[in-house]
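Can you make up a protein sequence with its backbone structure tokens?

===
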Amino acid sequence: MQAMNPTPLEAPSDDPCAREEREAPRNLFERIKRQPSALLLAAQLLSLLLYPLMDGTYSGRVLFGAVALVVVPLAVWVVGRSSAANWIAWSLALPALSLSVAALLLDRPELVIVSSVFEALLYFYAAASLIRYMLNDECVSSDELFAAGATFTLLAWGFAYAYFVCQGLYPESFLGSVDPQRPRSWMELLFLSFTTLSGVGIGDILPISAPARVLVMLEMMTGVGYLATVVGRLISLSVLRAKRR
């Protein structure tokens, strides 16, 4: 009688996505390390909720901006896990943080415009780093879903800082329905940025100068491109992942 070969045991799946799902974090620190985008998104949303309470005070806006300058480079470093990403992020964050503190202590608001240049570059760099992170990964993890939301807020913040710089260099660049001639507040510029990036177009702030209109057009293109490429790719990978199961 021919001996029957034992049925080989089924090898565990080599799917890196499935392996990543099985490896659950053991503690809070490991969870934060594996999902830095969630921490960044939470910090952005928290500051968004607290901004209305501090928008009328100059020191309050500087304080919350300084806190964000610490959170963003840390998130970029954890996501990128490279010394280059860490060095570039902190090279932008440290001057912005120093100028913000100097503007607050020395009572020199003009320094805030200079610090906003570094802050805008930092937010755009962080957004580009997260987009690269999402595009290079073949697995749609929970951190990538948080990264999609965090990247949107980073782009909105970056353009809001760009609007703030534009208003400082070109006064009366933005016209509002309330007190049209006064400079727009930070919250108004951030609201303009969110409405432009999302494409809803319900803002009551209008760009008047040519540089302001160029910035708004660039943000429109950025919003459409972000939804078409990054978000569309995440949806496609999620559908393919579901079909393989």
User: Anything to note?
Assistant: The longest helix spans residues 210-244. The two ends are 40 Å apart (CA to CA). Residues 35-244 form one domain.
